[in-house]
Design the sequence.
């Protein structure tokens, strides 16, 4: 099928369209359209630049990591109120005779929260490498 190509200054495809000026024969099914910008069109020949494709993949992966980090940070922030409640509960213990048992009970109640926050921080650290 005939298409019109919009190319950048280095002849990489920016877009593929149908216009009244369609003049390039393309088989879109044989192309990796997710990496359309890695195809170079020179003298009627379309070729996939593997290095450019690798750059696009690396860029996508970096963007995906940033999104994951942002989501994990949001999870941390959403549990901040629960962590503050833990601290408030901790400092509300006034009876020295029951302090240890109160502390153990409090730790049981908040153990999952603390473990989840630690897991989130580890995931962020791993993604930030």
Sequence:
């Amino acid at each position: 099928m005939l298409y019109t190509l919009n190319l950048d200054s280095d002849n990489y495809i920016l877009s593929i369209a149908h216009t009244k000026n369609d003049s390039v024969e393309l088989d879109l099914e044989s192309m990796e359209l997710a990496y359309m910008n890695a195809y170079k069109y020179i003298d009627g020949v379309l070729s996939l630049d593997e290095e450019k494709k690798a750059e696009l993949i690396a860029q996508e992966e970096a963007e995906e990591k940033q999104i994951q980090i942002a989501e994990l940070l949001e999870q941390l922030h959403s549990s901040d109120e629960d962590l503050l409640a833990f601290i408030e509960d901790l400092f509300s213990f006034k009876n020295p005779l029951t302090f240890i048992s109160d502390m153990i009970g409090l730790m049981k109640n908040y153990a999952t929260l603390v473990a989840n926050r630690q897991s989130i921080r580890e995931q962020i650290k791993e993604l930030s490498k």
Remarks:
- The chain has two domains: 2-48, 60-127.
